[in-house]
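User: Hello, can you help with two protein structures?

Assistant: Certainly.
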Amino acid sequence: MTKPFDMALFLSGVLSGSQATQQRHLRQARIMQAAIQQRWRRDNPWTWQLKHLRWFLTRQLRDHSDTTRYYYRLTALLIWKRLRTERKLLL
């Protein structure tokens, strides 16, 4: 039995701003994680590719408002920033 991926721990290094903003990013990241998990069976951001984020932002959010898509893009940028930061440390 595996432990579920902890998105809060994953994003803890790149989250900033007010508590409400941080909670919004975490909530949205978990929604993104669930959608990508359901579609591609990729349960954590370490296994995601750019196409997964692009799919989520274009297909999953196509019926949402521009404002909602904007805030999800900010969350996607935080996830991408976290992935790049860790990869730089490994090189």
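That covers the first. Now for the second protein you mentioned:
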Amino acid sequence: MRNGKDENHERYCVLMGEIKLRVRSLEVDAHQVESFGLELKDGQVFVYERACLQLRKILELIAFATLVANKQRFASAHPNFAEFWRAHKIMAKLKAINALFYPVPVRETISNRVLNIEDVAEGLWLTEDECSELIDMCGERLHIPNPFAPTKIADLGRPIAEWIARIKALLSTHTVALTDDDVILVRMSDWEKYGGVELLALGAVRP
């Protein structure tokens, strides 16, 4: 295990801090959306659209965050991202740059004063496939609706509050490969605050 932060680590932490801020904002809107009926009225549509936009931005930050360590490749690839609306095409581009771009939730244990990192079983956290599908579903909510039809809350598969919980479960403690030889362990404590993002540099082997 190697120690010390570098420029890429600092950038990644900044993006994780931004996710925390956006999650706080989304939680407020999600609470309001839960009180809405199926058919949106008056200003409710703006709150709902804002929630979908914020959720999509959070998902995009999760997906794009590892590109902080691929500045040149990002610069050459990024113009193409704007041409793609469907998430599976975006994800394919990201994998071409960094096959291990997606975070892996872990739990930490201490044995004989040695830090052990174990994967977390699926079921509670946002998977890569869910992230991709949800990016698309949120995007569809942001188009101008048919003016002759009522504006309704679309099915996102789960209530927004549940998606928030799965995002937190994914990121609260996770490993991620910024590059093939730079895997980091990230701890995101106290989701009510911007700070509280800590990391350790683990080296080249993902647990």
